[in-house]
């Protein structure tokens, strides 16, 4: 179907209709529908054994370590944010983040007492107050990765949409704030590190130009593919590049909860999904 007719059909049915795109216009489920089906299936019968490594940051770290890849150094695991020590105990560079968090919510990237996401000096009490004492989340404290660029900022986050060996989309995030998301820059690329040529998320503007090409990009791509193949399912593999090579970040089995993808990207990602779990 020509792109103009495709877009007209989508908007006629309604961009928030959630069910309309794939079966009516491309003959197969969209990415959104696959992710929704996965969430429903996992809620009903549980996460498959071969995808247990996607169940939180600790499980993902161990899986990656077991297969010989680098992860950030773990400093502490906290059953509650109130267990946070005085910040100087953790050294000059560290990250505090919830074990089951997402979208950098309640993440603090600390460098010499400054939160790199907002430039503010934070104390232990400040972090606990920002998270809120009512939280039930467990937290991990780990090293703050030094980006390959050497910049004094949170490292660039490279996110590989992996259907086994098939990597149709790479997202790069320059995260400058967790409160004002407009300060962040986001790029969507092909595996060849070229601009994807389509809108991927409806409410996220693709930044101009291209992000820096990591010096270890081939190794990052190979690592992402290998981990997805070992999991035998679709997963977004998030990682960083450092002066000495790639470091794993986390697995994301439900990127954006499958929602908010533009029609063409939603259909494209849906076409790459194979079998029940994506590869």
Question: Key terms for this structure?
Answer:
alpha+beta; 6-stranded antiparallel β-sheet
In summary, what is this structure?
With 279 residues, this protein is of the alpha+beta class.
What does this structure look like?
The protein has helices at residues 3-13, 21-25, 31-45, 57-66, 124-131, 217-231, 263-272; strands at 74-78, 93-98, 108-111, 114-115, 120-121, 139-143, 157-163, 166-174, 185-189, 235-242, 245-252. It has 279 residues and is an alpha+beta fold. The longest helix has 15 residues, at 31-45. Strand 7 and strand 8 (166-174) form a beta hairpin. The strands form two sheets. Strands 1-6-2-3-4-5 form a six-stranded antiparallel sheet, with no helix packed on it. Strands 9-8-7-10-11 form a five-stranded antiparallel sheet, sandwiched between helices. It is globular and about 55 Å long. Helix content is 27%, strand content 22%. The model is unreliable at 1-26 (pLDDT under 50). Helix 3 (31-45) packs across helix 7 (263-272).
Give the helices and strands, then pairings.
Layout: H1 3-13, H2 21-25, H3 31-45, H4 57-66, E1 74-78, E2 93-98, E3 108-111, E4 114-115, E5 120-121, H5 124-131, E6 139-143, E7 157-163, E8 166-174, E9 185-189, H6 217-231, E10 235-242, E11 245-252, H7 263-272
Antiparallel strand pairs: 1-6, 2-3, 2-6, 3-4, 4-5, 7-8, 7-10, 8-9, 10-11
Helix pairs in contact: 3-7
